[in-house]
Structure formats: C-alpha cells, structure tokens
Amino acid sequence: MDPCLYVLRYSNRLDFGAKTHEVTMTALRILQRMKKDMLHSGRRPNGLIGAALLMAARWHEFNRSVINIVKIVNTTESTLKKRLLEFGDTPSSLLTLEEFMNVDLEEEQDPPAYKTIRKKDSERVQKLLEDEDENLHFAKLRRLIEKKLEETSKKRAKRKHEVEEPENGKRKAPFKYEIPDSVNINPNTSGVDDEVSIPT
Fold first, then answer.
1. How far is residue 45's CA from residue 2's CA, in Å, rounded to a whole number?
2. DSSP letter string over 6-63?
3. pLDDT at 143 (0 to 100)
4. Model confidence at 53, in pLDDT bands (50, 70, 90)?
C-alpha cells in the first residue's frame, strides 16, 4: 500500500492552516525518499506517514509533538521513533530543507534490516578477530611460561647434581645431632612426663 495516498488526509487533520499544502508536499517528498532508500519495505504506512509529517511540520516551524502525530496517524511512539532513526541513517537527513526539496540524491540505501544484519556480522567478525588476538597472546604467554619452567627445571637438576657430586668427589656425611653427656634424661617412673635436667 502506497503511504503517499494518505498524507493529505492526515495533514488536514493536523491543522497546518495556510501552509497545509507546503507541509503535505514536503511530507510526500520525504516519503518518496524513504521509498527510494527502501525504508518502506515491510513497514506499515502509518509509521512512515507519521515520521514524514512530523519532520515536515518541524521543517515548516510547526510545533507538533510525537503524541499529536501518534494520535492522528494511529501508530505507536516507538514505531514513529524507529522510522525517524532509520531515516536519520540516510544521507538525506543531512540536507537542509532547501537542499532536500531541490537536490535528488542518486545513491540508494540498503533496507534497514539488511543494515542491521550487516552491522551484526561486522561486530561478529570484529569479535572473532579480537578472540584470535587474545588466543595469540595466550599462546605467547604459554610458550614463555614453558620456557621459564624448563629453565627452572634445568637449574634444579644442576643444583641437585652439584649436591650429589661435590668438587672433591667426597659426599658430606649427613648432619647428625648428638646429645651431650652433661644432659641427664631421667626415665619416667611416676606417670609424669619425662624430665630433662640440665646442669648449671
């Protein structure tokens, strides 16, 4: 269904007075540009008409709120805002009113759904590249850790070899603690803990 067929009816209900024709023509041009940029594909006409009339009204200095437009064209605020955001992603939104009415941009845009999918694909590819960089970082870190562990293992083996085979070829006797003769250990005969007496 062509949304251009209903613009005049809704425009009259918004009470633009003497400028009704100008606002209607601007809204029609916006809708034609939306169709060229594939914004109308898979969209109900109410949201497109509401967005076109709101932009046309603001361009002609009529202070019409989103709620006013929503009530007239019978759509929702969220739908109207989505259509405005979609139009805002096109090069036409960067033109002034005079440029928009007189300049026909030859470049056509992709449908919003296609742009969304392409954006998600781009984000997915970016994430994969980041994950790949992260994996490379972890691989380098793992190699560094393995190298350090190997060096530490070699150092330990070298120390162990030096302890087992000293320079003079003789192994030192293990340390042995001997109790001096001056220390008396009395056997426990009374059920009390052993007493150790050290002479003064």
1. 7
2. GHHHHHHHT--GGGHHHHHHHHHHHHHHHHHTTTTTT--HHHHHHHHHHHHHHHTT--
3. 85
4. very high
